[in-house]
Twin-arginine translocation pathway signal (Parazoarcus communis), 184 residues
Amino acid sequence: MRVVEKRITVSRRGFLKGSGVAAASVTALSAGSLMMPARDALAAGFTQLGAGPGKTLLVMARDIFPHDRISDRYYMLAIEPYDAMAAKDPALKKLILDGVAQLDRLAMASFRKPYADVPTETERLGLLYAIERGAFFQKIKGDMVTGFYNNKAVWPLFGEEGSSWEKGGYVDRGFDDIDWLPQA
């Protein structure tokens, strides 16, 4: 039996026409996803707590531990476990939802918008100071310390190389590199 290879030939005009349609489709799809702000898109994954509380937790986490050079996705890695835990722990879910509602009420009273939509960090910090002694704030702040700073993906962003004992310790790996201190 003879095998015949079939070749599809496309003219230059047909190729350009087809690629133009494909490019327009990709552009339309991209524009649709760009309409949703990044924080909203990240918070949309909160199925138990909801997107609104997810966005509030994300903004709150950034306000408590602000690092302008660090992307929202690293903060999200620290707060997304709340959604899974809320499914198993009704008390935690209530604490978070009540805390978010309280924060939003304060923001609405002062700025006529929810906490996550208050435009400046300084204004949001004033709202956080109002709730800082409460259980909700203390829970989020306490968990963020380990959830955010113990994330090995964040360490290089701070210049941290991670554990050193496997590599002989810090003595030969920059222990005394203190070029940021003025010399006496």
